[in-house]
Amino acid sequence: MNIATQGVHLTLTDALEEYVHRRFVPLERLLGKFESRQDLTLRVDIARSTRHHQKGDVFSVSVSLRIGRTMLHVEQNGDDVRQAIDDAQKRFKKIVEDHKERVGKKDKTAIDKA
Hints:
The chain is α+β, with helices and mostly antiparallel strands. 42% of the residues lie in helices and 29% in strands. It has a four-stranded mixed sheet, with helices on one face.
């Protein structure tokens, strides 16, 4: 799985990119079934909503992954960029698990009907 990171209105440091990779690489084992069929690219966009505001939910993290015709997407806002990344990763992991379960049920139903 490839992980593409992009910063909007902020500069991504090497430490921040490494943090994103460290948080999202463990999801590869959940995506093993899908990754064998195609090359997957996880897109992580980290944005600062404005340079003017200093407090509140200033950072936004958007995570998206296309699996076949299905797009899995999560957006998370937070006042700390690392906390927003952590929260986005937790929500994205839940969405991947739900998608995997849904696809597994479809495959099992198709096998049962055959």
